[in-house]
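Researcher: Hi, I'm a grad student and pretty new to this. My advisor asked me to get structures for two proteins we've been looking at. I'm not sure of the right format, so I'll just paste the first sequence and hope you can take it from there.
Model: That works fine. Here's the first sequence with its structure tokens right after it:
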Amino acid sequence: MFEFIFKRKKNLKKEAKPRFLLNDWMDLTKEERIEQDFNEKNQSMKNKKKLLKSIREEYIKIKNKEK
């Protein structure tokens, strides 16, 4: 499980995408900002769900090994 966490941290550093600059963000219309914010929230929620799923699977594997 620890291997997964360390691999995840390395991957996060590689996948980090630059955020919108403040001026670019303010140039967007309100609808565009809401849409972009909604998309980013959905993407982060998907990533969190994947992480939780993988942690649960690892926990189940460890639990089954102990039996």
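Researcher: Oh nice, that was easy. Here's the second one.
Model: And its structure:
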Amino acid sequence: MKKILTTIAMLSLVVMGYTQKYYSLKECNNDPLKYIEKNYEDNANSYIGKTIGEWADECEITLKDFVPVDYSPWGTPKNLIGKIEHIDFNIKYKEYDYDIYIYIAHTTPINSNDYTNITGDYQDIWEPKFYDFFKKARIKKIEVSKNDEYNYNIEYRRP
């Protein structure tokens, strides 16, 4: 019995050590790029398995420009063709341009034809109707890409 309790206590400590801190926009000095780095680059693993709705509800930066990207028909399992692979949110701040890629888990696929039906004319502005459409999709992974003055620079970090 002591071994079981000790094992449970040790596992709890390990799990608590792996939990990752959320940084508010205020803690990042109201710098949206630093906020993205802290939460979606450094702590990207903490969002795996959460829904896009949970992510969007927590997100403190204004989401405007976004583009859903379908799976490529080349090298993709047949059951995923016509489904949305990820959503690309573009965040611009001063001369910097960051993209947050949110990949959708295969367990909650989203049909790209259904997305086309709600867009009407070409739109890339995050609106409540898109939030409602994507909110139940589970997050597979989050990646961040960075451009400074139109040069791709993944190593760049905000001071």
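Researcher: Is there anything I should tell my advisor about the second?
Model: You could mention this: The longest strand covers residues 84-93.
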